[in-house]
Specification:
Structural class: mainly beta
Number of helices: 7
Helix content: 10-25%
Distance between the termini: 40 Å
Shape: globular
Strand content: 35-45%
Largest sheet: 6 strands, antiparallel
Number of strands: 34
Mean pLDDT: 91
Radius of gyration: 22 Å
Amino acid sequence: MHAANNSRRRFLGNLLSGATALALAPTLLHGNNALAGEPARFAASLDTQPWLAGWKSVSSESIAPLTLEIEGKLPQGFAGTLYRNGPALFERDGFRYEHWFDGDGMVHGWRFGENSVTHRARMVATPKYVREQNAGKFLYPVAGTTIADTQPIRNNDDVNVANTSVMTLNGRLFALCEAGSAFELDPDQLTTMGPVTWRPDLASVPFSAHPLVDRDGSAWNFGAISMMGGSGLVIWHLGADGKLISGNVLETPVQGYLHSFAQTDTHLVFALIPFRQMEGNGAFFERLRFQPDQSLRVAVVPKDAPTQVRWFEADFAAIYHFGDAYERNGEIVMRAVTHEDVEDARSPMRAAMNGMPNAHGGNGRLRELHLGLRDGTARWEDTGIAGVEFPLFDARTQGDRAARLYAPTTEGLHDAPYFNAIASFDVERGRRQVHGYGRSVLAEEHVFVSKPGSTRAGEGWLVGTLLDSARGRSGIAVLDAEHVDDGPLAQAWLPYTVPLGFHGHFAARV
């Protein structure tokens, strides 16, 4: 067994060293000409389109704690902290990023107590952020905007923006993105403690932004070596104690992009979107072209044998986020938000990043991918639900049943080309509940929080963040997950706006 483990580690080391060499190649990460957006144009557009505050760059590296007045009343038992992460710094020295994914990450903590909530936020002090903060300008390559005269980098963490999501495990807090290490933060002060190395030979290997917690409290995740210029996936398994159980490489037959994945009680499911890279210089997403004429390759990996895989081929789909997955009658059913416009999928809300009023977003469709474990077939089924993204659910749902999904959507008039409502979807029963926050409000992902002591799936609350562009404020709302259409039980508002983020996690107070 010891010899086998050493062999696997040598194989992993060889594979990753080759991928890292590709990742650092000038043709992948170093452009000759800067192709930035114009900060002045964005500022002018913000004056007439106040909803663009969601993509406005922060001017400070931290936001001091502020205790907010609660409108309504927090439900009994609702206590803990909603951590959220997202790109927040887009401009330096007259240069503005064009791609939403490029901004340096800022983590927010919304801490709930006895009918009160305190907000604080802080930039993640990655090596990239600290060096650029000292220099007063952008120095390093990013995912979607070409930067001129970049500085040399040693590994992925030199360009890690830690801007996509957060995870808590065994009382520890981590800021995540898809292209590098997890960065550990102090869960109270949100100060950065540094990148995490789960095992020495896996230092700086991608640890993606969408880990999934298993029923035993352990966490699964992946790292896409395609983000480093190679192919293959690293499959991570961490114990509930925060220690690494295993880190294995899954070889992939094709290069494919993936941002997240899904799990059932017994399997992990990875969907690789076919793409190619255009020749020449430029950032990753500038040169990325999805290939709709090719099949989606789907890997089904047993949790008890994570080095094994069964491959399926399905019709092409451009996917960032999955809902739940379950197994029933010899098939896996996985729900995903697919995007019909592959160019928009390549750079979501690009027009908003450039201050252009013709931005559009929220065009995702909720579809089901059925994978036949007996006959090897794969087919898509449409749910009839459109205009959604960021679907979440109660992970306590029984493993052979479809979960109720909660996702931002649009309802009625809305000023921004973005979500202004939160909805609950019981797809199998054809039931939908929705609460619209109003035409000037931008609604973000809403996280499910189970009621203390409850065991029934769906019994809990939703907590989500908002941006009210008409009143120039950002806020947070708590709703009953079983009665979404009743609207918020409680809301609280900051006296200013903060940029929109991507993903959050609620850490309940024990």
